[in-house]
Amino acid sequence: MTYAIRLKQSGGPQVLELEQVEQSAPGPGQAWIEQHAIGVNYLDVTQRNGAVPIPLPNGLGLEAAGIVDSVGPDVENVVVGDRVAYALGPLGSYATGRLYPVNRLVKLPDAISFEDAAAVVFKGITAQYLIKSTFAVGPGTVVLLYGAAGGLGQLLVPWAKHLGASVVGVVSKEASVARAKAAGCDHVLVWSDNLPADVGRVTNGHKADVIYDGIGRKTFAASLDSLHQRGTLVSIGASSGSPPPVEVGTLNAKGSLFLTRPGLPAHATDVEEYRKRVLDVFDAVERGVIRPAIWKTYALSDVAQAHEALESGKSAGAIVLKP
């Protein structure tokens, strides 16, 4: 039997419904994947609650890992039995099995488990483009990251350190400080309105060359004031609401700053670019540069509990669903 989570209306975690579905024969360019582990991301939450609109009814979920069960006509890049992982593409990874485009499947190295792959592909691609494309982090770069104790932070911090950066982590509560330090942060600050002064203090007045801000409205002004001259503010989310509009002249007045709002689709829709990023993530995992940090594993049928943990801030790392 094949089961999938269906979303018929936006709302709280209770709108997620587990339904039995029919297994379909793959068409040209498709494979049927028997899934072994499914990644849960905050984007899933915003799609479920309507903050990021999607057509309804629909499936949910953007990453998973499993085994190729069957392939469509003229498929050559994967064969039955291959261990594979994927991110993006059609919604619907919250399922025990599914059809998926073969050109976006990436073979999983033997050294990486299904669970680790599901925990690292989506967030790993995000970390990869943020520190290698959005801003080229390197020796001497001072990075400031909100949510340093979270799933993305647990990957971005050690990767930035590996590239030679100094990392200032920002967390929302004292209980998260130890986890952020364990990830490799040179300094960890608990959020307060005095953040710019605190950043100046721990960086000997230099402040940050690049800031990755996933909080949004609440932290935006403090982020601008925590940047070094010609620094870059990378807005990567808005958990407290969308940042306010910015007068272009403000960026000049505060030191010729740069402001950008990148997104994963623009960095991973092109298949070749996507595959290169995934392989770079797998290489970083195999070399021990980054380590998938799974906080908790839930059964697919308990997906509502997984969403509640992520949405409430209770989770302390990646969440994985098991079919």
Shape: globular
Q: Please tally the β strands and state the result.
A: 15
Mean pLDDT: 96
Which CATH top level class of the largest domain fits? Alpha Beta
- Give the total of domains: 2
- Tell me what the CATH architecture of the largest domain is: Alpha-Beta Complex
Distance between the amino and carboxyl termini? 11 Å
Percent range for helical residues?
25-40%
Give helix and strand order, one letter per element, not per position.
Answer: EEEHEEEEHEHEHEHEHEHEHHEHE
Explain the overall architecture:
- By secondary structure, the chain is an alpha/beta fold.
- It folds into two domains: 2-121 and 267-322, Quinone Oxidoreductase, Chain A, domain 1 (Alpha-Beta Complex), CATH 3.90.180.10; 139-261, NAD(P)-binding Rossmann-like Domain (Rossmann fold, 3-Layer(aba) Sandwich).
- It is 30% helix and 27% strand.
- It is built from ten helices and 15 strands.
- Strands 3, 4, 5, 6, 7, 14 and 15 form a seven-stranded mixed β-sheet that branches. Strands 10-9-8-11-12-13 form a six-stranded parallel β-sheet, sandwiched between helices. The chain has a two-stranded antiparallel sheet with strand order 1-2.
- α6 (220-224) links the parallel β11 (208-213) and β12 (227-235).
- The longest helix has 21 residues, at 114-134.
- The radius of gyration is 20 Å and the shape is globular.
- The mean pLDDT is 96.
